[in-house]
Amino acid sequence: MYDIKKNPLGIYEKAIPNDFSWKEKMQAAKAAGFDYIEISIDESDERLARLDWSDQEIDEIRSYMEETGIVIPTMCLSGHRRFPFGSKDEATREKAFEIMEKGIILAQKLGVRCIQLATYDVYYEESDEETKRRFLDGMKKSVEMASRAGVILAMEIMDTPFVGTILRAMHYIKEIPSPYFKIYPDMGNLTQFSNDVESEFELGIAQTAAIHVKETKPGVFKNVPFGEGTVRFTDIFKKLKELNYTGMFLIEMWADNSRKQTMEEAVKTIKDARLFVEDKMKKAGMKHEA
């Protein structure tokens, strides 16, 4: 378990090479100075198959947590991009609920406390009032399931206009008032859809379960190296300190899987990102250290 006397700083699973085993991923996170890993259940068949992990497979991962001290408190459940709640296809909607139910059960077994949702009504279809209505209905039923399991569902502030700001997310928070339904802002995405990121955080801080720390630039939401985008990290951290936010921060970045990487290379890449972020936090007066 991580030290609760400091702001926990985690690393996205996809920031570590895909060919690393779970034990190696946790060892890399530990060596790079992180407190936790966020597991990815994306739209690929390979990662969706994790929803059917056996108890033996889950116990093995839990043993790695105990061995390394790296826990998995959050899950990025982005499989709903492929199988969205707002789809006009009934079979797709049924699959969305199946993914949600299995995701909540897996969260219980792994000790995940917060599931980050991909907040799209639809992604590969055309959005309209019907898809938005179906999405809201899907969220209501999902929150009912999560509430019974004691797992928080948190809408990510996304890379599309649908819920690209906290203001837009608050519509759904008001429609579904629940302690198990929150938001998961992404600094990078928010920067590209709002001219006043600080006010956005002020609006939604009481509903914030965790925060993504990601670099972006206009029109580019992935694979922008830290320091090469337009996210005003220091200013945002200053605002979060003012708002007394002491929750989880998750560095979101992606490993270069086009070539084989050594453990040393993988650790250096994510450690450099951690040092960059911690420098911005320190300049804002919000230290990660205990």
Automatic annotation (TrEMBL):
One of its GO terms (biological process) is L-ascorbic acid metabolic process. One of its GO terms (molecular function) is intramolecular oxidoreductase activity, interconverting aldoses and ketoses. The keyword Nucleotide-binding does not apply. Residues 27-272 form the Xylose isomerase-like TIM barrel domain. Gene3D superfamilies: Divalent-metal-dependent TIM barrel enzymes. InterPro entries: L-Ru-5P_3-Epase, Sugar_Epim/Isomerase, Xyl_isomerase-like_sf, Xyl_isomerase-like_TIM-brl. It holds the Pfam family AP_endonuc_2. Keywords: Isomerase. This is L-ribulose-5-phosphate 3-epimerase. It comes from Anaerostipes butyraticus. The lineage of its organism: Bacteria, Bacillati, Bacillota, Clostridia, Lachnospirales. The gene is ulaE.
